[in-house]
Amino acid sequence: MSSPLFPFDNAYARLDGLSVPWQPAAVPAPRWLHLNRGLADELGLDAEALASDDGLAVFAGNRVPEGAQPVAQAYAGHQFGGFSPQLGDGRALLLGEVIDRQGRRRDIAFKGSGRTPFSRGGDGKAAVGPVLREVLISEAMHALGIPTTRALAAVATGETIRRERPLPGAVLTRVAASHIRVGTFQFFAARSDTERVRLLADHAIGRHDPALVGREDRFLAFYEAVVQRQARLVAQWMSVGFIHGVMNTDNMTVSGETIDYGPCAFLEPYDPQTVFSSIDTHGRYAFGNQPGIAQWNLARLAETLLPLFHADEEQALAAATRALEGFAGHFDRHWLNLHRLKLGLRGDAADDEADRALVNSLLQLMHGHRADFTLGFRRLSSVLRGALQDWLALWGDQHAATGDWLARWQQRVDAQGEPAHDVAARMDATNPLFIPRNHLVENALEAATESGDLRAFERLLTIVTDPYTERSDDAPAALPGTPEQTQGYRTFCGT
Ligand code: AMP
Ligand code: MG
User: Is 440 within the bounds of a domain?
Assistant: First the structure.
């Protein structure tokens, strides 16, 4: 007998009342879009076996692999500020969990695998474009060192699904530290089911904060840990210009991984008001609003955990408030450290105020002149190498306005007394040259959707998963889109 494709151990499915057993829908004509062999290996899976026809049938949902216990997970969520007490996996299934090579429990889950009891009016399907967008952006985020769910496989189903226009269908296989969301806690809290909130919290603690297991104050300590993880995560987003686009509470994990790549995109010209999502008409999830929204979502998480914090309501609330107020401090510290690294600076507390002002001045200049965020940092290393031109070119005929800032920055770098080339090399290992540029993502998804041509997708995936190394062949992919390519750029949820 051959060994199973996945050595599943399904802890979540064993938890009483948190999910519903369900099966993926069969699809007519599976075809590979992507298999992430590196990730398969990290998970301790046999990539060759997964690449077989058997693997294709599994990733299409046509064959449930041995040991899987597919379930649809229950969750609720605040969507654009309004509460829906029941959302849940309407087009997703948790197949099961595996323990990876480092001993970490990882979820293997489908997206686009058909209707479930949580589907409401939806068809349970996903389209090729949004599935490939999730592969590209989540793998780019991983390469940038940002905690994220990963993409293990993507398979076209051979089905046509109905959206604004008919689109080819696909199934994504996603890997996550867990799929436990703020909204998962909200689902049970909204039903006053404190015992299930406790069951869920203890499970989450076992997975994400094992050092807290068995401690009496573990729930508050867990909450503090989630606050810290989210503060760090959003600071990391801000440091690369990532806009999540739909930071509803059902799209925020307690693991601290970025999840649910729908209308997400990267900033090009720096502007904190930037919004790409077609449904975010009020800019709730604009780039600059992300820290505040994360904190708002964390307040919703605290509300679900209050009965576990303390038997006395007032004391529970006081403890939650203190923990939540810690968010700003954590966020500010991470944000400053990340941006300091971007400028090649070694920080020390005495420099905090001055360095924060230095970073903010650069961001203000970028905002005023619509300079490209990514290259505005990346090309600074060339300035240290004595080649000013490329950086100045980002400012067009306005570059004289940057003179004072450059002088201040150079003085601060010089004061560190390090060889300029060392600082420049460090900056190049921090500031990506390649991000998933919006026009390139669109081109890649369009070719895959319209004619099944995966070449642009594959090329772009290779580029964005090696974001720091300069390569002359890929030089054009580092450049922002032209105004014609980027004006009015809109992204859509995967629905
Ligand atoms: P999302 O926008 O992907 O975060 O999804 C929000 C909610 O809508 C979740 O409960 C999803 O499961 C559900 N949903 C999104 N698209 C579909 C679909 N095509 N069919 C069924 N449910 C969906
Ligand atoms: Mg979601």
Answer: no
Structure tokens given for 28: 């007519």
Helices (H), 35-192: 37-42, 47-50, 53-60, 128-143, 182-189
Structure tokens at 20: 């519903």
Give me the pLDDT at residue 398, please.
Answer: 84
260 CB within 6 A, ligand 1: yes
> Measured from the CB, is residue 342 less than 6 Å from ligand 1?
no
Domain that holds residue 404: 345-428
Residue 48 lies in a domain: yes
332 is an active site residue: no
User: What are the per-10-residue average pLDDT scores of the chain (495 residues)?
Assistant: 88 98 98 98 98 98 98 98 98 98 98 98 97 98 98 98 97 98 98 98 98 98 98 98 98 98 95 94 96 98 98 97 98 98 92 96 96 98 95 90 96 96 98 98 97 98 98 97 84 69
**Number of structural domains the chain divides into:** 2
Inside any domain, residue 379: yes
**Ligand 2 center to 260 CA (angstroms):** 5
The answer to whether residue 458 sits within a structural domain is no
Residue 39 Cα to ligand 1 midpoint, Å, equals 26
Phi, psi angle pair for 485, to nearest 5°: -75, -30
DSSP calls for 56-75: HHHHHTSSPPTT---EEEP-
